Amino acid sequence: MKIGTEERKAKAPYSLNSKKVADATMLWLEKRGVKIEEIAELVMLLQKKYYPGLTMEECMHNVEQVLSKREVQNAVLTGIQLDLMAEQGLLIPELQDMVANDEGLYGVDEILAFSIVNVYGSIGFTNYGYVDKLKPGILERLNDKTLGPCNTFLDDIVGAVAASASSRIAHRKQAEREQEQGEDTLGKDIVR
Amino acid sequence: MKIGTEERKAKAPYSLNSKKVADATMLWLEKRGVKIEEIAELVMLLQKKYYPGLTMEECMHNVEQVLSKREVQNAVLTGIQLDLMAEQGLLIPELQDMVANDEGLYGVDEILAFSIVNVYGSIGFTNYGYVDKLKPGILERLNDKTLGPCNTFLDDIVGAVAASASSRIAHRKQAEREQEQGEDTLGKDIVR
Amino acid sequence: MKIGTEERKAKAPYSLNSKKVADATMLWLEKRGVKIEEIAELVMLLQKKYYPGLTMEECMHNVEQVLSKREVQNAVLTGIQLDLMAEQGLLIPELQDMVANDEGLYGVDEILAFSIVNVYGSIGFTNYGYVDKLKPGILERLNDKTLGPCNTFLDDIVGAVAASASSRIAHRKQAEREQEQGEDTLGKDIVR
Amino acid sequence: MKIGTEERKAKAPYSLNSKKVADATMLWLEKRGVKIEEIAELVMLLQKKYYPGLTMEECMHNVEQVLSKREVQNAVLTGIQLDLMAEQGLLIPELQDMVANDEGLYGVDEILAFSIVNVYGSIGFTNYGYVDKLKPGILERLNDKTLGPCNTFLDDIVGAVAASASSRIAHRKQAEREQEQGEDTLGKDIVR
Fold first, then answer.
1. Per-residue pLDDT tens for B88-118?
2. Nearest Cβ partner of D19 from A16, A118, A186?
3. A16-190: which CATH topology?
4. Which of D165, A7, D13, C9 minimizes the C-alpha distance to B145?
5. Which fold has domain B34-190?
6. Chain A 17-46, CB below 8 Å of chain B: which residues?
């Protein structure tokens, strides 16, 4: 709940430090075994068909830009937190069972994933569903229940970041195309 | 991530027990100081203007029906869990700061709330935003930061349950109206 | 915008007839060449792996139940309406171009689809994205741009109805499983 | 449906011109009687309490930035289109009745509004619900059913643009605060 909050915070000693939140996001992805390169590979898999000249550098850059958004960082940290708690058996028993077993009727992991995809608009929904179902590359490893860590949230989050980066590329490529055509265009202004 | 999950679970000893999840939801709402009557009072506040004959019994019944949905239970338990962890200082430091201080740019509480509202369709969005901003009744108490417990998630969740119960009433009242008018109607079949 | 509306309607001659809206939904799906059986086939494709005993009758029943929800009917009728207008060239020119050409950066069709999927909770997101990307069965035909009709909205809507019916089956099968196991259970009460 | 689309478009003569879509959005808002200043006044109303030094120039600038996003333009044009069609009585009869009468159980207008709010994250949900319920300023006029035009979609859209601009301001003000404090900060990089 956000509203009275802002008034209250005028006096509170707490002050959000955006850089710390951003750094924690990158640190925890790494701690949980996720490399930016691996997310970029998912992006390449999703987009190379449409943009044959797409490079891994571009994919990595777009993943990093997605991860620089506050909503994305909030979802990443919250999801990893719940995975960590489940791994240590610290959740309310009924929630513990559902998260630890990645229960089919527990959908909060998908909900967090969608809060990531939404930031780049509805065109990312399809890509998210697709990689989430097929689990290529890193998603197969994250989803392997025999390996120890609980990644109930993390695999959905990684898929969502890749889908968002794909949407971001689609928006940017359109802007580039219009600029090249010398059209009277908004160019870079239209994109995030 | 839900897919391979279902296959895996064929062998797994884990089996979801819906009644336990439902019971835990009611128990934890109570433990966190939320009474069904108080949520029903929010519903009455939102709906009495449109349905002057609305009774508290109806409001309570509709709140209970909302709370019987799995998606709602998942969101309630997950939100309370994060509040609990924040209260005990157990979260990742950067997340701890944001949840404990109900940081204005942290919106995962609203995201969980919306997963509740969504179950009864988009007509609940407005009611949710309205009670969340004005914080009548129980929401004022839950949002009072001087009282000890961390309710960053819980106040949004309670507002969302009230908004959903309001949507449910709107759908049901329409069905009743059509039945009374003796119209060739779908009656109760159309409603959840 | 819904609020003053309800007051106003007390006096207004207009009165929603739910049966007419439901009938119009079925009629327009048929007019646009979509058979319930074909949506049921998508459901079977998505679910047979998890429920080997699943019958076409069950799939059809679940599709029909999804189509009996008001939010779903609203999305189906609104989407078909926009397809119809695009086919006749009646839209605002810039919108006409985007809808008629199923522009990659136009995502309102996905947004309507998600309002359908949401009604059965987040577990349907993945199934929607999957069928929307692979376009099996009827979705291939609906998406064939050489065939005349504009189905920019309809193909997403059909995929979303199939994904929702899949979610509904997952919820119901869990309830059946618990009942068979003679567990102290909520049984049918928990499901829609 | 977006996927095969991209391949097909390689050959198609159609090519999205982003500037035209952006211009059409501004033109149609104006044609429907909505001034940027009026949306900015809603933003001021929502935010002046938290940022006493906020100027109308800032509010207008943020509204313009929100309106420069493709997802927002898509929702604005599609919503105005449906209002226009309803005004001319051109919709499928059952849909016509619901849109022309702003039926309480028809929620596609809220769904389009939420696709706008989502672009700036979940913190805008509350502001949207609040202005949508209280209808200050321009929203009262848009919602006045005695005035002729059908604004079933437009009033929700205007409220959503104001809520999004409020979220954008909250994100930016945080960045400014951190920069002023000379913190090791991400500054402008974190914001859209």
1. 999 999 999 999 999 989 999 999 999 999 8
2. A186
3. YutG-like (1.10.3760)
4. A7
5. YutG-like (1.10.3760)
6. 20-21, 24, 28
